[in-house]
């Protein structure tokens, strides 16, 4: 996954992604917009059909990130760096934006840039995601979700 993550790293340095970060910053101030973003991202990830290796793993981790953002906004989970949260939301904004560097209507390639950006995020913020997974599994074990 590192070459995919490397492509995502390059995308994360792109001016268009910087624009996505600024959009994410505005969205994060409006919980209703965050909810809409999470729903849209979830639907897009659910609809993603690809033979790319690791797609299911990437989708599972991004679904976990969606749950993390929900937990953050409902106040049950706060143990995350604000910059990580911002970059993750920016990745989701990028994923749901139909016109990005490689438009999604282009077969296979349209989702490849989204995948590489998600792979970069997962690779760069593994520790934060694992910390949330441990918290989430502990919450479920004691009956809170």
TrEMBL record:
Q: List, alphabetically, the InterPro entries matched.
A: DUF1232
The protein here is known as DUF1232 domain-containing protein
The record's annotation in Pfam families points to: DUF1232
Give yes or no: UniProt keyword Signal: no
Alphabetical keyword list? Membrane, Transmembrane, Transmembrane helix
* Membrane-crossing segments per the record: 80-99
Q: Where is the DUF1232 domain?
A: 85-120
């Amino acid at each position: 996954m590192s070459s995919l993550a490397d492509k995502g790293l390059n995308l994360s340095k792109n001016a268009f992604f910087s624009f996505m970060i600024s959009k994410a910053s505005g969205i994060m101030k409006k919980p209703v917009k965050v909810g809409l973003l999470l729903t849209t991202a979830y639907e897009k990830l659910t609809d993603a059909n690809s033979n790319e290796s690791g797609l299911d793993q990437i989708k599972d981790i991004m679904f976990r990130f969606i749950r993390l953002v929900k937990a953050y906004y409902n106040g049950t989970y706060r143990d995350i760096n604000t910059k990580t949260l911002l970059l993750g939301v920016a990745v989701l904004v990028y994923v749901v934006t139909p016109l990005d560097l490689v438009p999604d209507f282009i077969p296979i390639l349209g989702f490849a840039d989204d995948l590489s950006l998600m792979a970069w995020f997962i690779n760069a913020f593994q520790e934060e995601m694992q910390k949330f997974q441990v918290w989430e599994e502990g919450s479920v074990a004691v009956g809170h979700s």
